[in-house]
Specification:
Largest sheet: 8 strands, antiparallel
Structural class: alpha+beta
Strand order of the largest sheet: 6-7-8-11-17-15-14-13
Number of helices: 15
Distance between the termini: 33 Å
CATH architecture of the largest domain: Alpha/alpha barrel
Number of strands: 28
Number of domains: 2
Low-confidence stretches: none
Mean pLDDT: 94
Length: 594
Amino acid sequence: MHSENNLNFGIIGNCKSAALINENGSIDWCCLPEFDSPSVFAKILDDNKGGGFWINSKNKFETKQKYLGDTCILITKFKNQDEAFEIIDFMPRFQTENGQYYAPPELVRFIKPIKGSPQIQIQYDPRLEYAQGKTIHKEKNNSILSEVNTPTHDSLFLYTNALKQSVLNNEFFSLKDSLFFNISYNEKLKLPTISKCFLDFERTKVYWLNWCSKTPVFDQYNDLIKRSAMTLKLMSYDKTGAILAAVTTSLPETIGEVRNWDYRFCWIRDASMVIRVISKLGHKRIVKNFINYIVELIPDKDQKLQIMYGINGETVLTEKILDHFSGYQNSKPVRVGNAAYSQKQNDIYGILMDAIHAEMKEFPSDFERSEEIWSIVKGIVWVVKKNWKKADKGIWEFRSEDQHFTFSKVLCWVAIDRAIKIAELVGKDNIALKWNPLKEAIKDDIESHAWSEEVQAYTQSYGSKYLDASVLLIEQFGFVSANEDRFKKTVKAVEKELAFNGLLYRYKNQDDFGLPSSSFTVCTFWFINSLIKIGEVEKAKKYFEDLLKYSNHLNLFSEDIDFDTKQLLGNFPQAYSHLALIDTAISFNSVIKS
């Protein structure tokens, strides 16, 4: 089912940065030293100018790519009748003796001969600073130094036991012994050796095996849940606790169109939903780190949350266009930064409050910042009280006029509902009682304005006839229960109106860019989850099994899927898609148990 043009990449990373490696072993995307730094390899955005690291061979090989067991170490195997070799790629991450995590801004690649002596050529071609200036490569102090001076000075070091001149001159040679390549943003004080790199490999392997062993084991879809959980872990930035929406920029929602955005930032909504799922899997550290990130972001009691921040807490994310890049499959523009940071979206408060409540409930004993959290909870209630009646941009970030979106209103209700529950958890019952009338007022408002008698569903916004997949989440957030008539009717109406070719539209009304030709992957998962909840398990399973076939060869999903070709589109891998996959798979498991 996997189509040719299908974002057939694996992701490796170490919670500081990440790299994408295509199924032929070419490193086509990597930013160093951090996720949102300028790229050193960007072949994914421009085949000629972007820069990459790949292997050419004199003979033809078939390639096969897979992860090494329960790890984020990627193996690409090349084989023909007479010869075989493999490439092993990883970014080091492991715990040191003092309990800290070692995760340097570097990537390690091994090339190992397996059979015969293949004739290969190393194409090592980093283009620093988004390839905006000319990168010069030269041999220096036992390394290959790559340097650029425009727009700013930057450098990269390659350490290897291959002949440096044959790498620089792209010479063919016989692969007889194992080679290592250590691509480091920093100059190494101790020269890397193959045995030191192999030790880092073993330690990184152990790190991932340990991490996976903390994930519960499920009867169904266990491997998929684990791979998705590891992928979400790779999108968490250990230094601050931020969680990225995706590790790429400008992979288009539709080929040849302009819906191309930079996703290497922390959206409060996406991140909080990741946290909610990860806390169900018991991974406490990511959850605590994210809550700390939020505490650091909100110093003042009356400070309104932005919808998104930089991974180091930056509040201004100026958008600019890299005109020299042709874009993924010629889809321009390529953007860095994201102007959406200034939008107003009232749903983020409810989703964040839900995540905070989930953490306090899952891990009650170790809440060392509970007083700061309580201040944030009270602050959010104050903001919601003042703003819930106002229109906003909604979950889909319409760039046109504000509306009274049902999803935003429901999430305002969620904010107050969870604040009441948190108040009860911290022994503030009197405050919980005080907040109750506000919760009831929001609920009454939604029930009387968001439900359409004509459509027999909760619609996208007050008074509208349009349906919207985000409304399916009202059951998940506890606004209605799955056996309520209104919810069942909404699920049916959404299927009738928005399901197409086994996938879902987010909505069908014209937005700022016209009717999308691709499906937002998370919406199909939401829909499947809703079917499970209303008891249509067989139908849900059929949709789910079909959807899983549209992942890439490593079970990874991007943001969108083309309705007709089933090609993966949009930024990759997408946190939203993977958290929803886990959620849906868990729902199937709980149905079996009951």
